[in-house]
């Protein structure tokens, strides 16, 4: 038996005891909520043999955290699953979130080529070689990142999409940085890797975020103090067609390793957007002081196809599609999946940090920066 710590973001303090028997892995999850203790046995289907747990068939295995199978699917806000977030970007606790761990095969996307290669348009993610002078950027200085790094991210996304691109937000993530409560000068605290299968936007929050960026910055906006007083990031006239549904818009993250060592701890797994169905979605509300944001958490489905790029370096940029209004799921308001229209792009890619069983115990910590970019076509 081995102990596993609970991922960041849980409402309660949890520990677990892991035991493998046959094709199932059993977890005794202990939750401390206030003065109450709750114990629950969870079983996770594991690979059929120890040999299959290592990197074979161009992939690996890893534990991914989904919503519990009893969670009710939802496309729109209902007040059942939420958190409240302070100005440091820290959650006060999660309400209505009960996780279920699954050990799944995660394919090595680096081994794919030709028509099999994953693309931003069809699958929702892509890794591109785009060296950046990260050594010259102090990622622990908010203003330096916004003034000196955002433009390079905009250029990468503009090259990939051919559209108007506006970088508007970013996070620096590290498990050790989160644990030590390291703070970005002029910004929020360092966040931990997100060990939860999720998408960053929803049918409601994606267009709402575009509309917000056509207005002056508010207290929680990354660009407050950077833009001129009363100046929006995006011209309302440019966004008008996208907000009315006449034109296409998207939200794309530029995710980068910001240290010299390749990423080996907490690598990021990416789900093929074409393998997601509307019934897999559960709205997660994020209550800020001045607005309510939304993510989609995921219910497990055997349809989900997972990929990752081993040992990402600082010379590479991982593009992750967070929303695309041209996706069939988005266009149909959740009535249809992206796979039902193979000629259209996918709407988004679920993603999550995971633990690779081949990671050496003394491997360096992952430090990454993700920059969100609003993309307006036409």
Can you offer a commentary on this structure?
This protein has 378 residues and is mainly beta. The chain folds into 2 domains: 1-46, no CATH class; 58-376, no CATH class. The protein contains 5 helices and 19 strands. A hairpin with a 5-residue loop joins strand 6 and strand 7. Mean pLDDT is 85; it is low at 1-56.
Number of domains: 2
Average of per-residue pLDDT values: 85
Q: What portion of residues belong to β-strands?
A: 25-35%
The poorly predicted ranges are 1-56
What is the topology, as strand order, of the major beta sheet? 5-8-16-13-18
The outline comes out as globular
**Residue share in helix:** 10-25%
Structure summary:
With 378 residues, the protein is mainly beta.
Task: Based on the model shown, name its key terms.
5-stranded mixed β-sheet; disordered N terminus; 5 helices; 12% helix; mainly beta; 34% strand; 378 residues
Helix-strand layout with pairing:
Elements: E1 2-5, E2 13-21, E3 24-33, E4 36-45, E5 59-67, E6 82-85, E7 91-95, E8 99-108, E9 125-129, H1 142-161, E10 164-173, H2 175-179, E11 198-199, H3 205-212, H4 236-244, E12 249-257, E13 268-271, E14 281-287, E15 292-298, E16 306-308, E17 316-324, H5 328-331, E18 351-353, E19 368-376
Parallel strand pairs: 6-14, 8-16
Antiparallel strand pairs: 1-2, 2-3, 3-4, 5-8, 6-7, 9-17, 10-19, 11-15, 12-17, 12-19, 13-16, 13-18, 14-15
